[in-house]
Amino acid sequence: MGSFSIWHWLIVLVIVMLVFGTKKLRNIGQDLGGAVKGFKDGMKTSEEPKEQIQQGSATAEKTVDVHAKDVNK
Q: The pTM is what?
């Protein structure tokens, strides 16, 4: 009752191909691949602003913080 052998997986694959058809499975694969590619591109673009923020923090260290006093008191 442990793991399935290669023959079990081949039979499952044949049944899935009969139920869905090869064209639908190919479309699902293309959609899944496009989603993964879009996710990777999104991760790359989200890393770019971090670099810009780190470069911006170097200029923030040169900023002087000034506290204003109320002279009317």
A: 0.41
